[in-house]
Amino acid sequence: MRRAVFPLLLFLFGFILGLLCLFPIHTVSPKMDAAPLTASRAGEEPASTSEASTSGLLRAAARAAEALKAEDYGTLGDLVHPERGLTFTACSTVDLSTDRNFTADEIRGLTENPRQYLWGYEDGRGSPILLTMEEFVRQYIFAVDYYTQAPKVGVDQVVLSGNALENVAQAYPDCRFVDLCYPELDPDFGGLDWCSLKLVFTPLEGQWRLVGLIHSQWTI
Known about the structure:
Helix content: 25-40%
Strand order of the largest sheet: 2-1-8-7-6-5
């Protein structure tokens, strides 16, 4: 009886081994977490804390957008870079030599400043944009709800562009930015009413500090 069982066992062992050769078992390794993105770029030192990461950048952009929506300029001023201040760009193309720049304290007291400033010129008509800080923020920077409604978000990437030069990366080479974009406001306009707000940040002591706000829209 034993002699009959032994060849049968050899046959079964060989059959199973053959199946393993034809259909090998694939093992799955545990999923590895991707390395976190930081504010560092080529030739730069990495940021010192997790706040100066891409997730921290998005949180800072959300805080700034929320403050703009609530017209909480005290909180917005707290996010502004203490030395570089905050530069406003009316229409896509940044010119740091002419664009208006304000300190953090000036941002905090934005509503109390009655002075009108020249922010640039209207696209197509060339009319001067003469507004107070509060008027400019309401009519250009946060004319729509970018905080809760913006359909598209770009990180270090311009979502949409028109004829105007999009030079945010060149104008702010040591910074990163978040582009909050509406590809369209009214479907009847076929996208010709798109607009966006770019929030530009630079790392300082492990935190993202706001240095630029750029309004963009369709241009002729």
